[in-house]
Amino acid sequence: MLGSDEARSLHADHPPIDLHADTLMWSRWIGYDLHKAHEPPLWRAALGGHVDLPRMRDGGMAAQFFGLVSLPLADRVKGMARVVHEQIDALEAQMANKPGAVRLVRKAGELEKTLHDGALGALLGIEGAHALEGDLDNVTTFARRGVRYLGFLHFSANEAGFPAYGKGRRDDSGLTRWGFELVEKCEDEGVLVDLAHVNKAGFLDACRVAKKPPIVSHTGVLGAFEHWRNIDDAQLRAVADKGGVVGVIFCPRFVGGDGLEPVVKHMKHILNVVGEEAAALGSDWDGFIVPTRELQDPRGLPLLTDALLKAGVSRGAVGKILHDNVMRVLDEA
Ligand SMILES: [Zn+2]
User: Fold this and answer.
1) Which listed CATH number (3.40.190.10, 3.30.70.2190, 3.20.20.140, 2.30.30.240) goes with 5-332?
2) Mean pLDDT of 13-42
3) Which terminus of the chain is more exposed, N or C, with fewer CB under 10 A?
4) CA of 6 to the centre of ligand 1 (A)
């Protein structure tokens, strides 16, 4: 395992949980095998090949949240729910192939037991409410299959609202009426509302009415780097006020440079503005990104831990960023 002894001991006590990787998209497309250690095929690990169980172990991780992606072509949303189901099928098939290696978990207690039994945790989140095909009951269906968060938007407007960037963008419009109903439905089903990719108006709408902690599964912050993908301090406060968490993305394009330093800068901005209860990891591994140099895959996480410590973040705060904050939110939802 990379990193210092201190990083290793921190990971042993607070094993990292990452909020967003699109690995199961690749499992569905090309049979990407979670059980096998991969060498990312492209230069600088571009696009994918980032997450698998052996490298999660090498990075001292506890669990990975897998984003379930469906990309609507034109306005065709029919069949999007099926695409999500097929990614869950792909995880279940892999769990059956090698029992005991990874377990689908929903709650903090389940993850603790899983780790105690020597397995790794997999958690599920959906990226884009278009996957519900306009049917609130699909939230129930997906929650029953283990989905723990729903990202309301992706790269196109849908029944719930408007994206921060992409097709049908409308900066002056917040959540639709259906979007507000969706917040309530998610909270009833114990599904976290994920505000990554949501435009600012919709983002603040969701936070205003939220009774449970909302999350932003993968993002940068504008206070650290100016980019359309990033959220501002008002958005940070809105999430933190409801007890939510914000996962920092590992993509140089969004954090404003390569290497650990920009990622640390985004983390520190969150700590400075809203405190240590709100920061988390939101890599976006396997999501068509070129990850930052040292964080090409989970093996690099202890290096991030060392960089945070070196930047003056306390051991306690690093433990919260890696593990505790996400566990808290899982319990509260
Ligand atoms: Zn995304």
Assistant:
1) 3.20.20.140
2) 95
3) N
4) 32
Question: Residue 282, SS3?
Answer: coil
Contact 67, 125 (CB under 8 A): yes
Amino acid (one-letter) located at 245: V
For 12, other C-beta atoms within 10 Å of its C-beta total: 9
CA of 283 to the centre of ligand 1 (A): 10
Cβ-based neighbours of 266, under 8 Å, separated by 6 or more:
220, 221, 224, 225, 248, 255
| Residue 105: how many other CB atoms lie within 10 Å | 24
Burial of 330 (C-beta count, 10 Å sphere; 0-12/13-18/19+): buried
Q: How far is the CA of 67 from the centre of ligand 1 (A)?
A: 8
Distance 118 CA to ligand 1 centre (A): 30
Q: Give residue-wise pLDDT tens across range 84-100.
A: 999 999 999 999 999 99
Say whether pTM exceeds 0.85.
Answer: yes
pLDDT confidence bin for 27, thresholds 50/70/90: very high
Distance 130 CA to ligand 1 centre (A): 14
Structure tokens given for 261: 């330093």
Q: Which two tokens stand for residue 98?
A: 């090698």
**If you measure from the C-alpha of residue 93 to the centroid of ligand 1, how many angstroms do you get, rounded to a whole number?**
25
- What is the whole-number distance in angstroms between the Cα of residue 8 and the centre of ligand 1? 29
* DSSP state for residue 47 in the 8-state scheme: B
> How many A from CA of 127 to the centre of ligand 1?
7
Give mean pLDDT, residues 286-296.
94
Which residues, other chains included, contact 77 with Cβ-Cβ below 8 Å and sequence gap of 6+?
130, 133, 134, 158
C-alpha of residue 5 to centroid of ligand 1, in Å: 33
In sequence order, which residues have a C-beta less than 8 Å from that of residue 205 and are 6 or more positions away? 161, 174, 175, 179, 180
